[in-house]
Amino acid sequence: MIPISDNIRCWNKPIVNYWLIGINIAVFLWELKLEFSNELGYFVNSWGVIPAQISGAITNAIFLNFAAWIVVLWRLFSLIVGIFLHGSFSQILGNLLFLWVFGKTVENILGHKRYLGLYLAAGVVTGVAQILAQPSLTVPLIGANGAIAAVLGAYIIKFPQVKIYSVLPLIILYIPLEVPAFFYVFWWFVQQLFYGIGSLNIPPFGVNQSGVIYWGQVVGLLFGAGFMRFRTFVR
Q1: Where are the membrane-spanning stretches (predicted)?
Q2: Which among 15, 6, 32, 24 is positioned nearest to 147, based on CA atoms?
């Protein structure tokens, strides 16, 4: 099932959404360049979210010396950078498709600054949840999955019954459909079973090789839903 668009009119251009999509594409193209020169493994292992490194840096900072917190801050910066890294063609295509369909409407509701805040905060919160869930994991966790799950959660809270124009690909046929928005909460997690297709070569152990990444996205989904609910409540 491929979402195409909704029927909600946006009065303002989703500038932030365009920029987020553009940055993700630009970074992925840079990853392809690094893969060609055999430098991608070093880059991703330096800037991806590696729970063991972050939890280890925090432990050292607490029990050793104050200067060690500089290392902690550098490691925590990977929580932001990791949002814009992707490990496969299927991962970035799936993520950006959902961002394109659902992000523009959420940005129109929240405004540019709040929407950017939601996206980045959700990515960080998801990363923290993954670290807490498996602090000894040595494989990098990368991708905008948690941030986009939050965008989807915010959208569903506001428009659960809105029809999403979709297509169902059947080999050489494409069947047009209108699917309720809440269906894509389920489909979001299903499609990620295929995110290994077109994987980049990231030595030594690849990326995202842990079931904890899916639980992290549940956190992102709930964070986005809570963010939208709180905004509606205080308005």
Answers
A1: 15-32, 44-70, 76-103, 115-133, 139-157, 164-190, 212-230
A2: 24
Nearest to 151 by CA among 198, 108, 211: 108
Nearest to 92 by CA among 182, 51, 31: 31
Write down the H helix ranges in 134-211: 145-158, 183-191
Tens-place pLDDT, residues 83-115: 999 989 998 999 999 999 999 999 999 999 999
User: Which 3 state secondary structure label does DSSP give 167?
Assistant: strand
Cα–Cα dist 41/27, whole Å: 15
Separation between Cα atoms, residue 118 and residue 148, nearest integer Å: 10
Q: How far apart are CA 132 and CA 145, in angstroms?
A: 17
Helix, strand, coil: what percent of the chain each, to 5?
Answer: 65, 10, 25
Those residues whose C-beta lies under 8 Å from the C-beta of residue 86, and which sit 6 or more positions away, are 24, 27, 28, 31, 92, 95, 142, 143, 144
Give the pLDDT confidence of 42-87 residue by residue, as tens digits.
999 888 888 888 888 787 777 766 666 777 777 778 889 999 999 8
* Tokens linked to 174: 């494409």
Q: Supply the DSSP symbol for 231.
A: H
- The model's confidence at residue 154, banded by pLDDT at 50, 70 and 90, is very high
